[in-house]
Structure formats: structure tokens, C-alpha cells
Specification:
single chain, 247 residues, alpha/beta, Aminopeptidase, five-stranded mixed sheet, globular
Length: 247
């Protein structure tokens, strides 16, 4: 957990902060980021455990969004809430330069946790279909949010090392889909500075602990859905010839 936070801060902090920096300064900046990240470990671990204990389903991330908003505000960002329902946007302007958007997801999955860890989720709710379900951050969004806040803090502390604008986006409903569309439709790129670069991250079980992988452009999988209405006459699967699936 701590290795993940440290390396994420270093990788994405360097990515954003060195947009206008010279290569000769990289080693010094790397060390400064590492030192500041180390100072944040204790509170970041507490934040991680809090988020893990208190997961919320897609489009229900009210308390999660409030906590992320409070953390961004405390780090010095101008914060707007309720963007695309529970989306959170924090903006930090620091002179002329590129605009970098950093994004995390907020939601958890309808899964009952059986890990046995001290900070395990015991949350149970009724979903949108009124089914009682357990809720768990089984896909790593608790880590994503923790690294997101860590990066926001360190980049704010290192304002003397970079110039430009940071837009930190907490997006709801990644698991169900629809959260990204919701923030876009609510004016993400109209109400807030439009980014020149966008940075997102995800935990990766296929990589060794302590390693960060990165790529430009699309990564992982895209999810689309479509609703199809079939009008006709139903029947038994053993007698498909007696059914009618079109007029």
C-alpha cells in the first residue's frame, strides 16, 4: 500500500510538475517529491482505510465525494461539487503553462468483503433494484483516491517547481458506466479549464509490487452497452421454430 502511494506520487507528480522543468532538475525534484510523499504516509494510510471501510455504489458516492472535496480544499484547490451528480473538481492555478487533468474514480462494487482485515467493509445497502448487497472497494478505487489526494497535496506543496493549471477530477460511477458521460454533459470542459494532458491511473495486479507501468493513449478496456428491444412471440427453447422474433 505505501509503496503504491509513493511510486504513484513520484510517477504522476513528476509527469505534471516537469512539463516546464529542465532535465537537469529532475534528480533534485525526484528526491523532493519522495521526501514530501514520505511525510504524507501516515495520513494517507488513514485516508485509505477510511475509504475502504466506507464504500459507496455507483451514483451513490455522496459521502465519498464529500471527503474527497474536503481533502482537495484543504490542499489549496478551488473545489466544485455535484458535477455530474457526485463528481468533484478541484482546480489549482499556478501561472501561465499547460493544463493537466488528473482523474480518479470514486465508486465501489456490490461485493461482500471477506478479507478479514481490520479495516474491512461491513457496509450493506439496497441497490437500485432493491436487492440487499454488500459493498466493497474490490477494484482498487480506494487506492486510486488515496494516491490522487497524495498527488494533489505534493503538487500543491511544490508550486515553485511548475507552472500551469491542475484540474483534479473525482468521477463517480466508473463501475456501472455513465459517470464520465455525466461529468462531460455537466460541462466539465466548459466550466473548468480544458486540459492539454489527461492523467488517470489504476492498480495493476499483473505488475510486481513497487512497479509503475504507463502508456500514452488508451489503456485497459472500454465498456459500452446497448439496449435491444425484441418484439415478437416467446416460446420454449426446445421449440424455437414456434416463436416469432420479428413482425
Amino acid at each position: 500500500m505505501r509503496t503504491t502511494i509513493r511510486l504513484t506520487l513520484m510517477a504522476f507528480g513528476l509527469c505534471a510538475a516537469t512539463v516546464s522543468a529542465q532535465n537537469s532538475k529532475s534528480a533534485k525534484l525526484h528526491g523532493e517529491i519522495k521526501a514530501r510523499a514520505a511525510q504524507e504516509y501516515a495520513t494517507l494510510e488513514q485516508l485509505y482505510q477510511h475509504l475502504h471501510r466506507n464504500p459507496e455504489l455507483s451514483f451513490h458516492e455522496e459521502k465519498t465525494a464529500a471527503r474527497i472535496a474536503a481533502e482537495l480544499n484543504q490542499a489549496g484547490y478551488t473545489v466544485t461539487t455535484s458535477v455530474g451528480k457526485y463528481g468533484v473538481v478541484g482546480v489549482l492555478k499556478n501561472g501561465a503553462g499547460p493544463t493537466v487533468l488528473v482523474r480518479t474514480d470514486l465508486d465501489a462494487l456490490p461485493i461482500t468483503e471477506n478479507t478479514g482485515v481490520e479495516y474491512a467493509s461491513k457496509v450493506r445497502v439496497h441497490d437500485d433494484q432493491n436487492n440487499e448487497v454488500g459493498v466493497m472497494h474490490a477494484c482498487g478505487h480506494d487506492v486510486h483516491m488515496t494516491a490522487f489526494i497524495g498527488a494533489a497535496r505534493v503538487l500543491s506543496q511544490l508550486k515553485n517547481q511548475w507552472r500551469g493549471t491542475l484540474v483534479f477530477l473525482g468521477q463517480s460511477a466508473e463501475e456501472r458506466g455513465g459517470g464520465a458521460r455525466a461529468v462531460l454533459q455537466d460541462g466539465l470542459f466548459n466550466k473548468f479549464p480544458k486540459p492539454d494532458f489527461c492523467v488517470a491511473w489504476h492498480v495493476a495486479s499483473e505488475l510486481p509490487a513497487g512497479m509503475v507501468g504507463y502508456c500514452e493513449g488508451y489503456a485497459l478496456a472500454n465498456v459500452n452497452s446497448v439496449d435491444i428491444t425484441i418484439r415478437g412471440v416467446g416460446g420454449h427453447g426446445a421449440y424455437p421454430h414456434t416463436t416469432k422474433d420479428r413482425w
